[in-house]
Every structure is written in structure tokens, then in C-alpha cells.
Specification:
metal-binding; decarboxylase; Rossmann fold; FMN; 8-stranded mixed beta sheet; alpha/beta; two-stranded antiparallel sheet; lyase; 5 helices; binds cytidine-5'-monophosphate; ligase activity
Length: 221
């Protein structure tokens, strides 16, 4: 059974993809299933935390007991996170936030005529980096999906985004892809690292939440 080591913590988690509108009937998005973020929410709950889950559109069900906030776009996800972050002690950015959104949402459905159609994109806010920058930032954990030099890019992201911890997965390994029920993680923080071997996402989530709770205790000590 999970230890109740997150009692008194408020854990805010983002999960799933975001949808960026092109016109009233179209959007761009990605294949994130939300499974890892939802597993983290369930694990945090099992360890006694209060959990707020800010989720893009997914088909998985939220564990009962979490406060679920459904959003579509990255901007909506940022707003929902920022309105719930004040008393958060842990933030985990597990969502696959679209890096870019169409510069303008066309008001009417785009008609088919020319042979080519060009869309211009603008950069989305980086929710994780924005949370890490807050004056009273919670213990901030990021995810990194890498296809090569996992440790190098993960550690770079840890320092560049000013995170407390980063969990990296090798997405070139097809056993642990986006929609898989399993995952494997290399976890890095300023003073250490740990490899979490391939396992069901819930088992892995419990191990990651355990690591977070240990490092959180160190931070507060
Ligand atoms: O820089 P990169 O997108 O690889 O970073 C991934 C991490 O940053 C994930 O934790 C993801 O949830 C978070 N992220 C975010 N907002 C963005 C882009 C990424 O919170 N716009």
C-alpha cells in the first residue's frame, strides 16, 4: 500500500494534449493519452494529497476524489493552473502542451479553394516555466520526451526551466509510447538521479510521487 507521505500537500497536475483551434470546426493537437498524468493524480491521492488535475481532452476517467478542471487550449490550461497554484506545494507538468497555436482563429469555417493553404503559428506560453518562475513556486516537476541523449537534454531542461525535478522518457522506445499502459523514466534533480524501470504507469507514478515526497521533505528541511 502507498505510504501517506503527501498528507497536507496540494498537488496540481496537468495532463493530456491541448487543442489549438484553427477555425470553428478544426484544431491541431497531438497523441497524448493523458494516462501518465491521470496515474500521477491517482498515486498522489493514494498518498494522502489533495489533487487538482487540469486536463486537456482525453478518454481516460479521472479518479474520484480529485478536482478535475477540463480545458482545451494551452492558454486555457495556463489560466486554470494559475488560478489554482497559490496554495499548491507540488506542480507536475505532465501535459503535452502544444508549443504553437494558430496565430488567429478564423471566424468562419475555412473554405476549400487554393491548392495550398498556409497557416501561421505563434508560440504558446510555457506553463511549466511560468510556474517555476513564481515568487512562491511549488516544488516543480517537468516531463521530457526525448528520442536521443535523454540525460543531456533532461538535465539541460531542469536548469533552463528552473525546475526541482524532471522525469524523462525515451519516446523512441516503442514499448513505452504515448498511448502505452507502460512507461520507464529517468528522473533527475539537482543533487541526484534515479532510473525507474519499465512498469505499469500507476506503479511508476507511485515511485515518482515517492521520490517527489522525499525531495520535498529535503527542500522543506
Ligand atoms: O520544452 P518541452 O516542451 O520539451 O518541455 C516539456 C515539459 O514542459 C513538460 O513538463 C510539459 O508539460 C511542459 N510544457 C508546458 N507548457 C508548454 C510546453 C511544455 O507546461 N507550452
Amino acid at each position: 500500500p502507498a505510504s501517506l507521505s503527501l498528507t497536507n500537500e496540494h498537488v496540481v497536475i496537468t495532463a493530456g494534449p491541448t487543442r489549438e483551434a484553427i477555425d470553428p470546426v478544426r484544431y491541431i493537437s497531438n497523441h497524448s493519452s493523458g494516462k501518465m498524468g491521470y496515474a500521477l493524480a491517482e498515486a498522489a491521492l493514494a498518498m494522502g494529497a489533495r489533487v487538482t488535475l487540469v486536463s486537456g481532452p482525453v478518454t481516460v476517467c479521472a479518479p474520484s476524489g480529485v478536482t478535475l478542471i477540463n480545458v482545451q487550449s494551452a492558454e486555457q490550461m495556463r489560466d486554470a493552473v494559475m488560478s489554482n497554484i497559490d496554495d499548491a506545494t507540488v506542480f507536475i507538468g505532465c501535459a503535452a502542451v502544444a508549443d504553437y497555436r494558430p496565430e488567429q482563429v478564423v471566424e468562419q469555417k475555412i473554405k476549400k479553394h487554393d491548392e495550398k493553404l498556409t497557416l501561421t503559428f505563434t508560440k504558446n506560453p510555457d506553463i511549466l516555466a511560468d510556474v517555476a518562475k513564481l515568487e512562491r513556486a511549488p516544488f516543480t516537476v517537468g516531463f521530457a520526451a526525448e528520442t536521443q541523449d535523454v540525460s543531456f537534454y533532461a538535465k539541460d531542461k531542469l536548469t533552463r526551466k528552473n525546475l526541482d525535478m524532471i522525469a524523462a522518457n525515451d519516446v523512441s522506445d516503442d514499448r513505452i509510447g504515448f498511448n502505452s499502459d507502460q512507461n520507464a523514466l529517468s528522473v533527475f534533480w539537482a543533487k541526484g538521479e534515479k532510473t525507474l524501470e519499465i512498469a505499469d504507469k500507476y506503479q511508476l507514478a507511485l515511485q515518482l510521487m515517492q521520490l517527489i515526497s522525499e525531495q520535498l521533505t529535503q527542500k522543506h528541511a
